[in-house]
Amino acid sequence: MMEETIDNTPEDNAKQILERLRINGLWEPAGLGLSYLREGERSLKLVQQHNNPSAAQARVRMKILVEGIGWTVDESEVELIDVQHLSPQEAHIQELMKRQEIAQQWPCPDCSTPLSAFPLEEGEWTFDGQQEMTLPEGHETEDGKTTELVEQWSVVITCPVCDTTVPMEPYDYGLLAGDDLMLKYDAKAATYVALSRPEIISMVDNKLTESIKVLGTFCPLSGELLPPHVRGSVVVFSPRSEEEEE
Ligand SMILES: [Zn+2]
Predict the structure, then answer these.
(1) What are the C-alpha distances in Å from 49 to residues 32, 106, 152?
(2) Dist. CA 125 → ligand 1 center (Å)
(3) Any idea where the domains of the chain sit in the sequence?
């Protein structure tokens, strides 16, 4: 018998998010002006709060919610952030810098070597299959479906000290690895490097288009599935097979 689907309560949602959060991972519930860090098995630390009344009220509500599901919140060292004078772009950059700073502290789960010391350029993009995700209310597909299949990818990096392999969320990997590594992709047959608009213009003007490709879902040389972040990019490519056969 089909069970009736029941909407998740805020408690259920919080529980799901927190259980998936890595140690030292950041949780910033949308629109609240609060940043939490996972400190332990069932403990959070509030690291930043926007310096305004709505964030202060949200802080009280979140404490009740989080403690209600059996977690603890340490609020002893909260940094208050003045946000009024920041433009949206400045606020975005500040937020990104804070996330990168926190990512630098993520440890190897086995030997505590910082992930930032791993050979990140050797990260292996791995397709982990598809997962059915519930669409937000009001975003049903044209034929009325309330779920869609979403590709799951991870980037597997290897500890240089203890050889433990650590699968990372692509977003987290990008935070650690930085833009340069995200612009470059080693497919089996070729290395692709994404071009900026000025670079594309200069290559076209100089008639260098034979080394340019526009990427879709599959590698134009080997047919392998490409990760989503490189699809739709204009890239220069250099074949890899020769160097590896040596
Ligand atoms: Zn290690």
Answers:
(1) 9, 22, 32
(2) 20
(3) 10-105, 107-177, 180-246
